[in-house]
Amino acid sequence: MAHINVLADDVSLDEPLLVEGLPGVGLVGKITADHLVDEFEMVHYANVHCEGIPRVAVYADDDVELRTPVRLYADEERDLLVLQSDVPIHPQAATEFAGCIRGWFEDDGVVPIFLSGIGEEKTDEVPRLYGVATGDGGSLLEAADVGRPTEMGIVTGPTGALMNDVLEHGLTSVGLVVQSDPKFPDPEAARVVIKQGIEPLTGVEVPVDDLVDHAEEIREAKQQLAQRMQEVDDESTQAQPIRMYQ
Where is this region: Disordered (predicted)? Predict the structure, then answer.
C-alpha cells in the first residue's frame, strides 16, 4: 500500500519547503538534493513507498544498512525537507507516484519546490534560471526575485506529473527551471538553482564550493545514473520549449 513511513517522529516541522530531487535532464534535481542532504547533514526523516518506485534496495559506500530508493530528509532548524531519489521513476508510473506524494504534501502542509533542467547546449555563460508556480507560489517567486519564463514550455516526466497533480488540486508550489546540459550531469546548473532559486526562496544560505571545486568528480559519479535515465524513456523529467511557429 502506498504510504510515507515517517522514521523521525521527534522532528518538528511547520509547513516546510521541500526541494524535490528526482533524476532528470542534467541530473539537476539529483545533484541539488544530494548536495543539500550532505551539506546540512540532514536527518533521514521518512521512506517513500509509492506506486511507480522500482522495488529495489540501495546501499551506500562504507555502510551495510540497506535503504529504500526514494527517501525524505529533514532539517528541523531550517524547516526544510529534501526528496532524494537514487533511481529514476518510469514515466508510465509517474501519475500513480504523483498522486501518492501529493496527498502527503496536502496532509502535512508541505510547499514543494520542483526542479527541472531544460536541455540546451552548454555555453560559457551562466545557465539561465526562471520560475513557475501554482497557488500562491507566484508571490514566493516574486519575493525571491526569480525571473519569469521567456518562452512557452512544458515539463514532462515524473516532475511534470507532480506539477500537474498539485495544479489540479489547487496547492501552492514553485518550479525552478534551469538551462542544463542535455547529455551529461551538470553541477554548474545545480549551483545556479541553489544560489538563484533555493537560497532566496528558503532564506537559507547554502555553501556551494564543493559543487564548483569537484564538478568533474560529481559528473563522473553521476554519469551511470544519467545513462540509465536515457535508457528509461525520452519522457524523463525535463522542461522543453513549445515553439508554436517554426
Answer: 224-246
